[in-house]
Amino acid sequence: MGMKHYPAEFKADAVALYRSRPGATIKSVAGDLGVNTETLRNWIRASDGRRTGSHSVLATAATSDGDDVQAELAEARKRIRELEEERDILRKAARYFAAETRW
Question: Which of 18, 50, 71, 103 minimizes the number of CB atoms within 10 Å of its CB?
Fold first, then answer.
């Protein structure tokens, strides 16, 4: 079986999802996303600035500055607004279809 290639945005979202669930395991999140457990583990390590299989954390604080953090925060806020809008649309659709089935 060949290796799957995932877009960088998917990888970042998968890592963010894992980090947003304090009690979740890598295995459970990987299962929810349909990816291999080790694949998700490697993405998490890469986002931490570590090489696969390395036990040391590289100093990445010097490479990130306030502008990067602000840009990431703005992007996250934009994504939150999009998701809230999608959620509201789905809620309205659910109410509509629930009303249709009552007749």
Answer: 103
- Specify the higher pLDDT residue, 82 or 55: 82
Which residues in 37-56 are b (16+ Cβ under 10 Å) and which e? eebbebbbbebeebeeeeee
- Residues 29, 79: one domain? no
Residue 14 and residue 3 in contact, taking contact as beta carbons nearer than 8 Å: no
42 lies in which domain range? 1-58
1 pLDDT band (50/70/90 cuts)? Answer: low
User: pTM for the whole thing?
Assistant: 0.47
- What is the CATH number for 8? 1.10.10.60
